[in-house]
């Protein structure tokens, strides 16, 4: 610490000081690396939210292990775009929404803001309902009561953000660890055929039209618009850098964190599919809803397995709802330059979920509709992220190299085409070949 400067007085300050010391060669070892960990862990929760639970359960129950390769492909694409988002924030000191506001015409910026806000609300619908469903099933309470508990808990966690970035990162990281641990335990309880699972992980196979549609759903709704916006904001001013060498080091460590955090998220998704396959595929292949999965798990694998499943769902719903609210705030601040009180945003984003339950709309159908909304919203942030990170006038020496650009364009094209298929099928429009 330089003479005359006060000692860091909170966890976030100490984290930042450790990271700066690491960049300047004054701090080595695991603790130095851990100071950089956090943004990718927070963003990774978007890939193990309650929407993933429903999709993965249906995939495993109906098609066994055969769609595991789709989960792997979706995860690889997610890694690519989250690393680009993180790089944009680190290199430019601007998040994706702010960069759009600076570079695009005002009418387009306003359109992107509205679409981004709708996407944040659609995201929160799925995540908020998921946590509430888990609480309602685990504690045998009405769904509305589960929603109220979820609302209080998520608001309480969001209040911790006022203490700096590090406490919230640690809470979200702990919830991710709970989800991962739950599915690690499930792997010991469920009779998984590991050889068959390994084979299907690297062997593309689509059994019928239903498998094609489910594969489209897994990939097309995996990369979340709010996660693409959020990651750049989490990295933009987290660790101040003095020169290009330090920027390069932060980008390198960020890429490693993205790889590790999303690898964990991908393994959790694969574990969901494998658990559903081993438990349901042989005699209960019609299981497609979270509530049905829980009630079916109890007689098949025991109350412990069913309870662990719900615990992971609750952790997923609460953490992803917190992250979704954070993303909504960042989208508004970036596009239009102001923020609203966190309790107002929390209230506004909860309203659709309460309306859905209050008027008796099927919650599973509501989750499906929310995924369609996300699919519609996704093209704008994906395309703009590829454009911005490939431009030297924005990224300087850190602009995408030709190979990265090709992979990004291919990844974006795959996701966007599959989103078109997903949206078309949802509205009853047949797409040739699907």
CATH third-tier fold name: Amino acid/polyamine transporter I
Strand content: under 5%
Give the distance, in angstroms, between the N- and C-terminal Cα atoms: 61 Å
The CATH architecture term is: Up-down Bundle
CATH class: Mainly Alpha
User: What is the overall pLDDT average?
Assistant: 84
- Helix proportion: over 70%
- Low-confidence regions: 1-6
Query: Number of domains in the coordinates?
Result: 1
Number of strands: 0
Oligomer classification: single chain
Order of helices and strands: HHHHHHHHHHHHHHHHHHHH
Major sheet size, sense and barrel closure: none
SS field, number of helical segments: 20
- The structure class reads mainly alpha
Using the CA coordinates, give the radius of gyration.
21 Å
CATH superfamily: Amino acid/polyamine transporter I
| Principal-axes shape call | globular
């Amino acid at each position: 610490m330089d003479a005359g400067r006060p000692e860091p007085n909170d966890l976030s300050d100490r984290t930042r000081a450790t990271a700066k010391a690491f960049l300047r060669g004054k701090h080595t070892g695991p603790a130095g690396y851990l100071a950089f960990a956090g943004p990718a862990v927070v963003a990774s929760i978007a890939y193990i939210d309650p929407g993933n639970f429903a999709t993965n359960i249906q995939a495993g129950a109906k098609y066994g292990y055969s769609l595991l390769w789709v989960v792997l492909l979706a995860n690889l694409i997610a890694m690519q775009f989250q690393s680009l988002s993180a790089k944009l924030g680190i290199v430019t000191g601007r998040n994706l929404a702010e960069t759009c506001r600076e570079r695009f015409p005002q009418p387009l910026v306003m359109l992107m803001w509205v679409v981004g806000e709708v996407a944040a609300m659609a995201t929160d619908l799925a995540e908020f309902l998921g946590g509430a469903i888990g609480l309602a099933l685990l504690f045998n309470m009405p769904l509305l009561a589960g929603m109220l508990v979820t609302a209080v808990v998520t608001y309480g966690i969001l209040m911790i953000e006022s203490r700096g970035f590090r406490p919230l990162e640690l809470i979200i990281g702990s919830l991710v660890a709970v989800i991962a641990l739950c599915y690690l335990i499930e792997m010991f309880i469920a009779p998984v055929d590991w050889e068959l699972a390994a084979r299907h992980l690297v062997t593309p196979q689509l059994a019928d039209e239903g498998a094609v549609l489910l594969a489209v759903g897994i990939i097309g709704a995996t990369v979340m618009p709010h996660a693409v916006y959020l990651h750049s904001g989490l990295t933009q001013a987290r660790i101040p850098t003095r020169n290009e060498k330090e920027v390069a080091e932060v980008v390198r460590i960020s890429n490693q964190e993205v790889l590790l955090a999303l690898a964990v998220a991908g393994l959790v998704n694969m574990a969901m599919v494998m658990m559903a396959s081993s438990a349901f595929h042989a005699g209960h292949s019609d299981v497609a809803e979270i509530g049905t999965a829980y009630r079916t798990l109890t007689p098949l694998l025991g109350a412990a397995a069913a309870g662990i499943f719900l615990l992971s769902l609750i952790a997923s719903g609460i953490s992803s709802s917190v992250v979704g609210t954070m993303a909504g705030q960042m989208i508004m601040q970036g596009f239009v330059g102001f923020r609203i009180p966190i309790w107002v945003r929390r209230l506004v984003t909860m309203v659709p979920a309460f309306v859905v339950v209050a008027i008796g709309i099927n919650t599973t159908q509501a989750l499906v509709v929310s995924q369609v909304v996300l699919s519609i919203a996704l093209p704008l942030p994906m395309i703009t992220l590829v454009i911005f990170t490939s431009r030297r006038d924005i990224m300087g020496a850190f602009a995408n190299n030709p190979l990265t650009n090709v992979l990004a364009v291919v990844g974006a094209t795959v996701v966007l085409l599959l989103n078109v298929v997903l949206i078309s099928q949802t509205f009853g429009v047949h797409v040739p070949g699907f």
